[in-house]
Amino acid sequence: MIPAIIIWVCRKYFAPKRYKKFSSQNPVDPKRVVTVLFLVCSLSAAFAQQSKFNIKRNGEVIGEMYFQQKNEGENTYLTITSKVQTRFVFKINVETEDQAHFKNGKLLTSNVSRIVNGNAKEVKKTNWVNNLYQLKTGDKTNTLDQPISYNMMLLYSKEPVNISEIYSDNFQCFIPVQKNGVHQYRIKLPDGNYNDYHFENGVCKLVVVNHSLYTIRMERV
User: What distance in Å separates the CA atoms of residue 102 and residue 148, rounded to the nearest whole number?
Assistant: First the structure.
């Protein structure tokens, strides 16, 4: 949408007119053109980038995940939402929503929420308060004084080049990053499971979730 607006502005003010010439009483005002382009580019910078992933199990699509990143000046806002419906021994319906806010590359807040078969799980929150992080899970509170500049949500938009560990908003701790190959990384989770992330041109294209009970592929559409 934004590139189309820029093209329209350029055509309107810069392209030669075939049927109408500008008169001396109606000259083009360069300042006006620059102002319009500045406003358009400012709107473009604040627009969100959204990606969709199909969630598959045994080749069958069982859900969808959406990743959104919005940059506004010094602030970066991340949102991940997903819905999964499948059956193991019994039917499972899972909805998730993760949110994070970075400022100047530093995590300020993050929230992790889960609804499983209609039952809401305890929300996990990470908040930067008084020069340290407060970690909350339900009524339980802990602290962390290590700076957070890269969390697991960022894996969907930024390849972890030269990054040795990342912060898990769900487990509320740092996790090592293991490079498995060219543009391939493995994240071993504290619960014994692990995820493999595959990147192309710095962007995540595939995530393979390796659980003790199942394997799930999340493929970028």
Answer: 9
Render pLDDT for 148-161 as a digit per residue (tens, 0 to 9): 999 999 999 999 99
User: What CA–CA distance (Å, rounded) separates 14 from 93?
Assistant: 55
> Is 82:63 a contact under the CB 8 Å cutoff?
yes
Residues 6+ apart with CB under 8 A from 50: 66, 67, 68, 69
DSSP-based three-state secondary structure for 214: coil
- Closest by CA to 49, choosing from 74, 83, 82, 77, is 77
Q: pLDDT tens for residues 158-187?
A: 999 999 999 999 999 999 999 999 999 999
Bridge partners, 191 (sequence order): none
Q: Indicate the pTM of the whole model.
A: 0.78
Give me Rg for the CA atoms of the chain. 23
- For the cut 50, the answer to whether the pLDDT of residue 47 exceeds it is yes
Structure tokens at 25: 């009483």
Give dist(CA 44, CA 1) in Å, integer.
9
Q: Which stretches of 46-90 are assigned E, i.e. beta strand?
A: 48-57, 60-72, 75-87
